[in-house]
Amino acid sequence: xxxxxxxxxxxxxxxxxxxxxxxxxxxxxxxxxxxxxxxxxxxxxxxxxxxxxxxxxxxxxxxxxxxxxxxxxxxxxxxxxxxxxxxxxxxxxxxxxxxxxxxxxxxxxxxxxxxxxxxxxxxxxxxxxxxxxxxxxxxxxxxxxxxxxxxxxxxxxxxxxxxxxxxxxxxxxxxxxxxxxxxxxxxxxxxxxxxxxxxxxxxxxxxxxxxxxxxxxxxxxxxxxxxxxxxxxxxxxxxxxxxxxxxxxxxxxxxxxxxxxxxxxxxxxxxxxxxxxxxxxxxxxxxxxxxxxxxxxxxxxxxxxxxxxxxxxxxxxxxxxxxxxxxxxxxxxx
Amino acid sequence: xxxxxxxxxxxxxxxxxxxxxxxxxxxxxxxxxxxxxxxxxxxxxxxxxxxxxxxxxxxxxxxxxxxxxxxxxxxxxxxxxxxxxxxxxxxxxxxxxxxxxxxxxxxxxxxxxxxxxxxxxxxxxxxxxxxxxxxxxxxxxxxxxxxxxxxxxxxxxxxxxxxxxxxxxxxxxxxxxxxxxxxxxxxxxxxxxxxxxxxxxxxxxxxxxxxxxxxxxxxxxxxxxxxxxxxxxxxxxxxxxxxxxxxxxxxxxxxxxxxxxxxxxxxxxxxxxxxxxxxxxxxxxxxxxxxxx
Lengths: 334, 293
Fold this sequence. Notes:
The structure holds two protein chains of two kinds.
Chain A: E1 6-17, E2 20-32, E3 37-41, H1 48-55, E4 63-72, E5 75-76, H2 82-88, E6 93-96, H3 110-121, H4 126-139, H5 145-148, H6 158-169, E7 176-180, H7 188-205, E8 208-213, H8 216-222, E9 225-230, E10 233-239, H9 240-245, H10 250-257, E11 307-309, E12 312-314, H11 326-333
Parallel strand pairs in A: 3-8, 3-9, 6-7, 7-8
Antiparallel strand pairs in A: 1-2, 1-4, 4-5, 9-10, 10-12, 11-12
Chain B: H1 20-26, H2 28-50, H3 83-119, H4 121-136, H5 139-149, H6 154-181, H7 184-191, H8 196-204, H9 209-232, H10 243-250, H11 259-285, H12 288-292
């Protein structure tokens, strides 16, 4: 198997605050292959967005990124000086953000902004950059791209703006695209269109996509593998289809059970009791144990190690015991 | 099958900034300000045509009251100099010093504010202490001291006003930059690999333009006022006529021939008022919420 485009090895992100050291991400390892979408899911504050930022070296002060390596096409980004890192951003690894309005410059036309993204990295004439920017607008399926080229962002709808942001991110055909909740600010039909677009462009270019989301519906339809995070740690990593068919970690099972089901009627949605522990006051053992229905005394003693499970990994000492029984599994599939 | 028109109708898209003049003229006070300013600029531009002679020359008998002699509609001062000619030529000096001094302030203030706000940390601390140092000295006295030490001439007066007026601009720009610095636009630009310079010049400064334009128009007014005050105190360029200098000269005859000081005084009031009205109007017209209407 070829080397993964992006490989993260034992990533640790901590914030040194007056109240103490806050460890936002701990011992996180994952990789993404060419043309693959890895979804990172978890509730607010689990460390998924800060992980996304760390992939581009954008963790804000007073955050500190430590770890063995973040390898992008073999280069360890953690060891690169800022100037070299800057040349990779946008060119080899790009990011799209949640809110397309604030990510665009209100005083430049959308065409000019895409041109600038190209001119920042390549020594090409403005005319050539203009042609490429126009082609990109067409590629992200903006109707009447020629005219839209000289429109200002406020004249575009949210979905159109996000298309422009995607065009900018893909202007230099990066190897990795990090999408941090790219559709949260958009309405549902537009959401589907934007995710379809990302899928399409991924297939055409072989871009690896890291999709940060809390929407399990999005995960199920648009990712190949899933990484579930809880309180800064990876708790489960599986192929998407397997994860939904046989969730192993109690937290993952809770998340999946908490999804609204079509035809579910007016029954109350299942919920996971309790809240995520404060990063300042982590329980000793498994961070999920206080909310877990199947926790036992051993769970509070040591952090459960990641164990290989089926095709992935899970960090739960009871994962082996709590398999969904076979008949029930059949019922789930039906 | 009906194809829905998703994009906007094909009418030429009115850009937000195209309507600026129109939005300005829609406000009565701004329209008055703009008209007065255009009038003063026209006076300055036509000074050499309408009054080809040196305004400091004695042309006729002194103390001609306004209207006394049709050839000198605004009268003459105690040395027999044509006051109308002085007003026209003085407009050039006032506008020139006002504009150039503001430009000097803009360069220093915007530069300092942008660096300070963008980089923060130690650079910010140092630059802000320097700004505070300038702010603690009353700007007029500071300009007075500079002009008194150097020779009073148009360049020294301009520079003196320019380097005393920038601190407020620096603070304004710094605050605006701070607002944008940690916003998604800058973060998205960094994520696309943009350099600091490109981010500041392309993404930050253009978005701070509206308040800067507004305060620049007020700065021009205050520069004109400062120049007049300096000239009033006898620290104007002695080789050119200036409104402030005319007021200063007329002060001695204020009780008998009050028009000598009052006419150039009214010119100063008009210019400063025009710029203030315009600044106010720009403030409203450049407000994006107003623009959206």
